[in-house]
Amino acid sequence: xxxxxxxxxxxxxxxxxxxxxxxxxxxxxxxxxxxxxxxxxxxxxxxxxxxxxxxxxxxxxxxxxxxxxxxxxxxxxxxxxxxxxxxxxxxxxxxxxxxxxxxxxxxxxxxxxxxxxxxxxxxxxxxxxxxxxxxxxxxxxxxxxxxxxxxxxxxxxxxxxxxxxxxxxxxxxxxxxxxxxxxxxxxxxxxxxxxxxxxxxxxxxxxxxxxxxxxxxxxxxxxxxxxxxxxxxxxxxxxxxxxxxxxxxxxxxxxxxxxxxxxxxxxxxxxxxxxxxxxxxxxxxxxxxxxxxxxxxxxxxxxxxxxxxxxxxxxxxxxxxxxxxxxxxxxxxxxxxxxxxxxxxxxxxxxxxxxxxxxxxxxxxxxxxxxxxxxxxxxxxxxxxxxxxxxxxxxxxxxxxxxxxxxxxxxxxxxxxxxxxxxxxxxxxxxxxxxxxxxxxxxx
Length: 444
Prior knowledge:
With 444 residues, the chain is α/β, with parallel strands linked by helices. It is 37% helix and 19% strand. α2 runs parallel beside α3, α6 packs across α7 and α13 crosses α14. The longest helix has 21 residues. The mean pLDDT is 89.
């Protein structure tokens, strides 16, 4: 692609390793004025006439070989659509294990796309997720000293992302340090070429400020494959405009939806527990005891009895929050995968009844794995995404005659008191002016 050459057709094809992250990525591109199609799974047909596409998978914690299969299938679908550049999206806390799945998926994409280098940029400045000298910070804490070290599925006990990525990758891993990023896009390109010559095709890139992401986006605009959190992808569209590849931003209206409201919280993140507690102060909320569920008790029947007893217009909530030590005991007895699968199955069953029987039409789902399981149960494969409004707030509406309004929220993100204001906002249509030269939305 050359400068000042307007491109007809899609530019960016994105693959997200979970549903909430995929929705966030699409919403950020839409807020930048980029028509963006969003689908769940590689088998869903893609819409026509978009500059970008996001395919959301449920591949973050499945076996690495299986994740690679899904990611490559998604890449094939995006190649068929004619995408020029590719973006692999993962969590801002680099959620993974020594076996993957970030490294194996990125390497598979490099091979499949015929590319020889990619950067890894998980930084999300808005919530204090930053990288310096290859080490990830959660605010003032090293990631390994933050609550993330207790994550039941992907505990992050090492803050050195170069070391974390190297442990799960076959190729050499290097660093594009802050000193190069601070000097601007050309310095980043020079560092990329030096890493290429040294036979190091994978590189963690430091970023601590929004302007760091801006220069990284400029340097990454010519890469065949880029990887990271959504926030760096949000800086690609301005780079495209500076090159003349696309025109002015386009508006992204989203309709309002009436109907009963509910919250489904499968994440065990500390932020979700606080949000659900705030919601429960004024609205009926049932906390599901996973210990009883693993022992074979019928929590679904209890949940439905609870839901049916409430007034039809009463917002209600369900959660599975437990203390880290309690979760650890369950995992030790039954296995990590079995406990997670049981929680997802119960919440999916509840969501199915809420929508089909109790006519819930406004739904917040907290937790990427939970969101993937619930939408699969509801047979939802395509969504109309609204413009990004801030961390944890990415609205969507199903594309059917009886629409459901959704917010698919990362367990770690969002204001403490967000649930009721967001559920209320779902009633109203929105048409946010795309952000041509200002980012993020909180700084408007």
